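Dear H.,

Thanks for agreeing to be a second pair of eyes. The structure we're designing against is below in token form, covering all 179 positions.
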């Protein structure tokens, strides 16, 4: 399965890097392909290293202004013109999406993917990997949106909140009929 992972390119501490590495190794050992932003820095590098060292493939989609930071040993690397094209290519190449910890770029990617799913533009499973409770506030906001009628379908049809990588991968593999 091609699994797109949206996440930070920042250097982060162990409370984020250790679970990210564990999730990456699960992906690689499971024979999955990582589809990601292609960066050779921060948490993006941690996940790519973990997937690759565990036998998985790497498909990167970088963007013109970040091409100098793109991983050189990926199995495939595409350079998009801009962030909009990058997001479209990442979704196109993926069978499923996992949103890990990140900043405004990751939040932008997450909300766009969920908005597209809400409007039926894709039906791919989406997981928010809630490492160390990082997305507790966002989950609460989404729940409020659902409770107050802002979502046209149940929140559970849009996104699955996983507390760890094992739960995230189990949900994705079950969604794909692999379990």
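And this is the sequence the design step returned. I haven't edited it by hand at all.
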């Amino acid at each position: 399965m091609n699994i797109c992972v949206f996440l930070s390119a920042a250097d982060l501490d162990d409370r984020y890097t250790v679970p990210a590495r564990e999730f990456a190794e699960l992906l690689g050992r499971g024979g999955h392909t990582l589809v990601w932003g292609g960066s050779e820095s921060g948490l993006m590098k941690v996940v790519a290293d973990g997937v690759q060292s565990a036998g998985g493939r790497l498909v990167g989609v970088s963007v013109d202004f970040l091409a100098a930071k793109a991983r050189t040993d990926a199995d495939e690397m595409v350079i998009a013109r801009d962030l909009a094209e990058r997001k479209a290519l990442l979704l196109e190449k993926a069978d499923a999406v996992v949103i890990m910890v990140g900043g405004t770029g990751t939040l932008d990617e997450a909300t766009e993917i969920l908005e597209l799913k809400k409007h039926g533009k894709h039906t791919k499973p989406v997981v928010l990997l809630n490492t160390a409770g990082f997305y507790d506030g966002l989950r609460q906001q989404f729940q409020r949106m659902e409770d107050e009628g802002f979502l046209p379908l149940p929140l559970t049809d849009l996104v699955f909140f996983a507390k760890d990588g094992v739960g995230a991968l189990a949900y994705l593999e079950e969604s794909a009929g692999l379990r």
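Two observations from my side: The longest strand covers residues 57-63. The mean pLDDT is 95.

Warmly,
E.
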